[in-house]
Amino acid sequence: MKPTLLLGTRKGLIAYRYTNGNWKVENLSFEGVPVSIAYADPRNGKWWAALDHGHWGVKLHRSNDRGATWEEVAAPAYPEGEEVKDGVPAATRYIWAMSHGGNNHTSRLWLGTDPGGLFMSEDEGNSFQLVQSLWQHPSRKTGWFGGGRDLPGIHSIVVDPRNEDHIHIGISCAGVFETHDAGKTWEVRNKGLRADFLPDPAADMGHDPHILVAAPTNPDAIWQQNHCGIFRTVDGAKNWEEVSEKEGPARFGFAMAVAEDNPDQAWVAPADSDAIRVSIKGSLCICRTDDGGKTWKQQRNGLPQENCFDIVYRHALATSGDAVVFGTTTGNLFISNDRGENWQVINNYLPMVYSVQFAE
Amino acid sequence: MPVVKFTKALKRFFPNLQDTPANGKSLLDVLGEMDTHYPGVKSYLLDEHGQLRKHVNIFIDGNMINDRNKLNDTFTTGSEIYIIQALSGG
């Protein structure tokens, strides 16, 4: 298990460090400011904080010393003249995803935003440029739309460690796109997904993945918690197969994590439904599959089982070794040291948790 | 020359902010000038297309500006340009 937890919350960045058998707060930064995603770059240990100031716009900060000091860098910005749709200028509303660009591209970073822009840096994050090929994709203006947010948003960036120019991204509400050339060209990868909310549920475009996660031991095995179920692919997203429970809680939710050492083992954090976004029947459970989604097991030991409204946002469930951790919308942070069999509280009374990441 | 005054909320990010005289003839010029005094402050007030952010307001001599997109509101050499944070959220 990596010994650091980095949280992006509604009221700041909070870092915990595992010390003498306990998780203790190591750093609190940007107190009171929404941190849409907190990210530690595993290549160099730099910490990033994407801020969502209600008043002052989206900002991006970087720390070389584990949050002791921060420097602001230029946030991703849409070039003059770019439009979300005809007559509506595109301006960055939210940074929703962040990923490093791999060990062969040491200066490369990726960002995903609402309104649906993918940004790339080739200078260690000193500047970010809009990936025009995706922004100009013929499906965007007519086939992408907003789901829970007003506009489409890129929340998932999955870089293939075997070839770091090979990337899958997830967009709410558009679907999955794949590039083999670091974003110069794109292919749509929505085959097998189902969008119940569309006139044609099997349409090419308009799907609503909530998060994409690839298995570290098999990057062609990719999972997604989708608005309309849980889906898995074993051929690099050429074909998706639904693996939701028919009569169980493992269906609707936002978050998903895959075991570091087993592409068939994954966790989801179910919510009641699209219409009722709270925990199911007032109790909190995590569901784990050990067989690629054929069966799911409810994991409740140590989690509140009554009077509970917590749900888990898409970036707020993570795993490292045998540890699984998640933060909730009502400010609870739980950890398991045995792959979800038993849970313990790290903290209650936190702000709404947007992201959780294990780091060194 | 007009003087620009800032909401206290911005001092958190720009600790040296103070009432600042401006030479610019347009509001956009004035905000550009403020950015030279306090690098980065313009991006807190305007988005990348120069439009006033949703939760920011600017008053000129006590009157809220009308043009949030092109910032064409006028002022005089004696004007007070006041930048405020609109209230929102919890």
UniProtKB/TrEMBL annotation, chain A:
Gene Ontology molecular function terms on file: hydrolase activity
UniProt keyword Hydrolase present: yes
Domain of life: Bacteria
UniProt keywords, alphabetically: Hydrolase
GO biological process: xyloglucan metabolic process
SUPFAM superfamilies per the UniProt record, alphabetical: Oligoxyloglucan reducing end-specific cellobiohydrolase
Keyword rRNA-binding: no
PANTHER family on file: EXO-ALPHA-SIALIDASE (PTHR43739:SF5), XYLOGLUCANASE (EUROFUNG) (PTHR43739)
Name of the protein: Glycosyl hydrolase
Source organism phylogeny: Bacteria, Pseudomonadati, Bacteroidota, Chitinophagia, Chitinophagales
UniProtKB/TrEMBL annotation, chain B:
Pfam families named in the record: ThiS
Domain of life of the organism encoding this protein: Bacteria
Gene3D superfamilies named among the record's database cross-references: 3.10.20.30
Name of the protein described by the UniProt record: MoaD/ThiS family protein
